[in-house]
Amino acid sequence: MSAPVDISYLGPSGTFTEQAVLALVEGQTASTSPAPTVRAALDDVRAGRARSAVVPFENSVEGSVSATLDGLIHGSPLVIVREVEVSVRFAVVARPGAQLSDIKRLATHPHAAAQTRQWIAHHIPLAQVMPEASTAGAAELVAAGQYDAAIASELAGVRHGLVIVADDIADRAGAVTRFVQVQQPGPPEAMTGADNTTLVAYLHENGPGALLEILEQFATRGVDLRRLESRPTGEGLGEYCFAIDADAHIDEPRMAEALTGLHRTSSKVLFLGSYPRADGRVTPAPQGADDASYRAASDWVQSLRGGNG
Amino acid sequence: MSAPVDISYLGPSGTFTEQAVLALVEGQTASTSPAPTVRAALDDVRAGRARSAVVPFENSVEGSVSATLDGLIHGSPLVIVREVEVSVRFAVVARPGAQLSDIKRLATHPHAAAQTRQWIAHHIPLAQVMPEASTAGAAELVAAGQYDAAIASELAGVRHGLVIVADDIADRAGAVTRFVQVQQPGPPEAMTGADNTTLVAYLHENGPGALLEILEQFATRGVDLRRLESRPTGEGLGEYCFAIDADAHIDEPRMAEALTGLHRTSSKVLFLGSYPRADGRVTPAPQGADDASYRAASDWVQSLRGGNG
Amino acid sequence: MSAPVDISYLGPSGTFTEQAVLALVEGQTASTSPAPTVRAALDDVRAGRARSAVVPFENSVEGSVSATLDGLIHGSPLVIVREVEVSVRFAVVARPGAQLSDIKRLATHPHAAAQTRQWIAHHIPLAQVMPEASTAGAAELVAAGQYDAAIASELAGVRHGLVIVADDIADRAGAVTRFVQVQQPGPPEAMTGADNTTLVAYLHENGPGALLEILEQFATRGVDLRRLESRPTGEGLGEYCFAIDADAHIDEPRMAEALTGLHRTSSKVLFLGSYPRADGRVTPAPQGADDASYRAASDWVQSLRGGNG
Amino acid sequence: MSAPVDISYLGPSGTFTEQAVLALVEGQTASTSPAPTVRAALDDVRAGRARSAVVPFENSVEGSVSATLDGLIHGSPLVIVREVEVSVRFAVVARPGAQLSDIKRLATHPHAAAQTRQWIAHHIPLAQVMPEASTAGAAELVAAGQYDAAIASELAGVRHGLVIVADDIADRAGAVTRFVQVQQPGPPEAMTGADNTTLVAYLHENGPGALLEILEQFATRGVDLRRLESRPTGEGLGEYCFAIDADAHIDEPRMAEALTGLHRTSSKVLFLGSYPRADGRVTPAPQGADDASYRAASDWVQSLRGGNG
C-alpha cells in the first residue's frame, strides 16, 4: 500500500473546498488528492489512505451540509481538528469570446443554481440550467464544449482556461461556507481560549421537553451554543438528532461536565472534536463557570466529604 | 386570462408529488398542472393561476425540503390547508428487455441517489450515476434512450413504458415524505381535534437562551411540538430561524395565546396555517390547558378586575 | 349596629402598627381602633365593623408575618389596597429616674427580644427577659410597675409616660416592616405604573418541577417577582403554598395573562390585591411585555383567525 | 472543665423536644441537659460542653423554626447527623380537681396558642391566654399556682403532677414537628439509600431568574427537592436566602455535582449535613442520574480527552 496523502478533499480540483485546503495549509507543503464525494474523502481517512480530509460543513445560506454530517455520524469515529471559513463568490465562466447573450445551456451544481436564481432570471432568463455534480465539474464540461457556460468559482474558470463573463452574481451577497479538517480520533488539539466543540446528541424521546433538557445541560454549566441544528435520524418523520457547536473546549471543566450530563441524559452522544475557532473570537466563561471556580467548588465538596471522598 | 387550475404541483408527472396529489384529491375531479420547481408551483397560487399548490415539505431521511420552506417564507403570504404522507419507494426502471447487469449509466435525482447509495454500490457498483432534476425526468430520459436506467417511482416507470428491474431498493426502508397543499390566506380550516399549526419564528438574538424562551412559550401553554427545525436565515453563519409544527389549532386558546407570546418575544413570526394532521392522531390538551380551563381562568381574572376590565 | 370605624389595626396603641396607620392616613381625619390580634383586625373588616384593617405583612429580619398571611388565607376574601414601610427602631423604656444598671425584669414581645439579643447580652446580661403579647403592652406594664423596663418603640414609651434609657438597640440596624391596609374585595386600585400584585399559589404536586412551572408562568409573560415565600399549608411536613409579590398590576395584560396561567396550572390561587408600591419604584415591562406589544400580538392573532374568532 | 454531656436539648424538660431526644436515643444510655434557648443548645456544641444538640427544625403548621436556622447559619459551622419526627399533641393540664369551666388564666407558648385558637374560642372563650416562653414552663407555673391551667404536652403535665383536663385540642389534627441532632462538622454519616442533604443557598442577585437557576442546578443532576423555604437574610426587605432539603447524599455523584454547581453560582452556600431520612423513604435516582451512569459518563469523557486529562 502506498503512503497516505496528507489531505483528501471533496473534489474536483477548483472548487471552494480546494480554496479551503489552500487556506488550511497556509503555504506549507502538503500532498492533496480530490475525492469524488464527501463520503469518499472521509473514508480515505478511515481506510488510512489519507491523514486527514477537508469537507464543507455548513453554509450560511443552505445550512448544514447533510452529506458531511451523515458521513461523520455513520462509520467509524472521526474528529474535527481545524475549521476555516471561505467566502462563496459565484461567477459565470465560459470559453474565450463568449457573450452573456449567447448562453443557452448553463451548467452548475443545484445549490449554486439555487443561490443565483434571481440573477439568472433577470439577466439570462432563457438559459436552461443543467444540474451537475459540482461547480468545477460544470466548468470542465464547458471547456469540453458540452455546455455554453457554468456557474462556478473564478478558480475553477482559470483552471479550465475559461473567462469570467459575469462575477459576484449570488442573489444574496456575503455567503460563507465553513469547512472542517477531519482525522482519526486522538487527544484533542490544545486549548487556545477561542475554541469550539462539535457534538451530535440523540434524544431519549422527542418533544420540546427533551430538547429543553439538553439545552439546560449546557446552560447550567455556563457553556454557550454557537449552533444548534436538528437533523432527521432517518427513523421516521418527527425523529431528530441535534448537531451542536458549543463555545468551549473539552479540557475546560464546564465543557467536560456538560458532556457527562449529555452522556447521562441522551440516548446517544457523538463527540466530533474540540478545535480552534476560525474567527478566533474569545468568549470568556461567565461568572462562576471558569476553571478556577470549578476547581474551588470541587475542592470545597471534597473537603466536606472528608474521609468519604 | 384563463381559469385557474385546482392544483399546481411539483412536476413532472409521475413523481411522488403526483402520488400526493392523487391521495389529496381522493377520487374527486380536480384539474392539475405540473410546475417545473417548487417556487413555480407556489407562485402559480400567488399569481392566481392555481387555486392551490401541492409540494413536498419534509422527508424522514433528508429533513425539511429547503425549497418549500424558502418558497413559503419569501413572497406574499400563503398558508397550508392540508397535509398527506406518502411512502417513498424507489425502483430501478429500464426499457423492456434490460438486465441489471447491462446498466452503465443510471440517472436519478441526487436525493434518490443518496438514499440508495449502498444498494447501488452492492448490486451495480460499476454504474455511473448521472444527476437529473427529478426522478420522473430521469425515467423520461431512459425512455428517450439517453440513459440505460433510472431510479424512480414505479408510477414514473409505468408512465414512460419502462419495466421494473429492481424494486424497493432504498438503503433504509420505510422512508416517508410529507406533502402539503397550500392556498392564499383565509380563515383556517375548522378544528378536527387532531390538528397541526405550522410556524416560522425568528429569534431577536441568537444563543440557547433565546431558543429556550421560544420553547417555553409553548410549554407554559401546554402545547406540544411535533417538529422543530433550525434553518439559516441567510444573514450569515450562525443566524437561524426555526420552523415549528405544533400539536394544536389556532382556534384553541392555548395555541392562540402561545402565538401572541411568540409575536411579542420573537423578532418575526410567520403563521403558515392550522390544518388536520395526516395521521389523525389526537393528542388531548394536558391538564389545565384545555379550552374549559382557559375559559374558567379568563372568567376568574375578569371577575377580579370588576369594572376595570 | 354602630357605624364602622375607618381603620381597625393591630394594637395596642403605641406599636409600630400605629405608626403605619399614621403614615397611611397622612394627616387626614380617620377613625381608628386597636384590635387585640391580627385576626381580630381582619375579622372587623369581614364583619363590617371596620372599613379597613392595617396589619404587619413582612419584616426584613423575621420574614412574612404568619398570622397575617394565615388570616388572609382563611376566612372570606379580603384584598390589600395600600402598603407602607416603617423603620423598626427599638428603645429601652423605663419609669423616670431609672438606670440601665437597675433593670432586672425586662418585658417585650419575643420577636423584639430576638432582634435585640446581642445588645441585651452585652449591656444588661443579668436582666431576665419576660415575654409579653406586644411591645406596647410591655411598656404599659412597666408604667404599671410590673416590670423594670420594656423594649418598645419610642412612641409607646411616650404614650405611657416613660423615658428612653437606651435607643436604637437592634442588633442589626435598618430593620424595616411592611404593613398593608386591607378591605373587602372590589375593583382594584387604579394603576400607577409602580404597582404590586400579591398572590398565594398552591401547587398541584410538590417538588421543584411544580415550583419551576409556577415561576415560568411569570417569566414567559415578562413579570418580575419581588418576593417569593414558601409557607406550610398545614397539611403535613413538606406541603407548601407560595406567597408571591409580583411587579405588575392586574390591569396590565402581562399580569392578567400570568394570572390565568396560574389559575390553570395551580390547584388553587388566591388574589390578594393590586396596589401602589410603597417605594414608588417603577419597573418598566421588558421588551415585548408592555401593553402595546400585547395589543399588537392579540390583534395579529385575531386577524389570522379571520371569521373564526 | 467537666466532661461534655451527650445531648444538649431545647428545654425545659417535658417539651416535645425531650420526646424527640427519647426517640433518638432509642433506649440507650445518654447524658442529656436542657438548654434555655435553641442558640444555647447549639452553642453548647460549639463550646465543647455537649457532643450534640437536639432542636426543632420544621413544623407542619408553622414552617421552619427560625431560631434553629438562624442558629445554624450564624456562628461556627455545625452539621445535622440525624432527624426524627414527633407528633404534636396538645392537652389542657391543670392542678388535680380543676374543671374546664374554672379556667380563667391559661398559660402557654404563643405557637401553641395559635394552633389551638379555635378550640379555646369554642370551649373556654372567657379564658385569658398568657404567653410563656415554653409550654413546659407554663405547666410548671400552673403547678406553682401562678395560672389556672396550661396548654402543653401530656409529658409536661405528668412531670409537674398535673392532670389532663382536655386532650388533643389542636385545631388541625396531625401536626408533626421535625427535630434534628447537630454536631461539629466531620465526615458525613454513611449513605443508607434514603438520605437527605440540608443546605442554605444565597443568591447573587434577587429575582425569579436567580431562583430558577438554583432549582435547575438540582434538576439537571436528577436531584429532587424535599423542601424549599425562603428566609430573609436580614439585609433588607426583599433579600432572601433559601433553605433546601434535597433527596440525596453528598457521597452520590449527582449530589456532589449539584453542590459544586451551587458553589459556583451562588454567592454563598452552607452545607448543613447529609443524614438518613426519618421516614426511611427511598427515592431512587432517575434514569441517567444513578452512580453507574455518572461513572460511565465520566469514563467516556476521560477517554475522549486521551492524554490531556
Largest interface: A-B, 46 and 46 residues
**Using DSSP, what is the number of strands of chain A?**
15
Q: How large a portion of the residues of chain A is in β-strands, by DSSP E?
A: 25-35%
What is the CATH architecture annotation of the largest domain in chain A?
Answer: 2-Layer Sandwich
Distance from first to last alpha carbon of chain A:
52 Å
Q: Count of helices of chain A?
A: 10
Please give the radius of gyration of chain A in angstroms. Answer: 23 Å
Please describe the biggest sheet of chain A, giving its number of strands, its sense, and whether it closes into a barrel.
Answer: 6 strands, mixed
| Top-tier CATH class of the largest domain in chain A | Alpha Beta
User: In sequence order, what are the helices and strands of chain A, one letter per element?
Assistant: EHEHEEHEEEHHEHEHEEEHEEHEH
Please identify the structural class of chain A as seen in this structure.
alpha/beta
Portion in helices of chain A: 25-40%
> What oligomeric state do these chains adopt?
homotetramer
- Superfamily (CATH H level) name of the largest domain in chain A: ACT domain
Task: Give the overall shape of chain A, derived from the CA principal axes.
Answer: elongated
Instruction: Report mean pLDDT of chain A, rounded to a whole number.
Output: 90
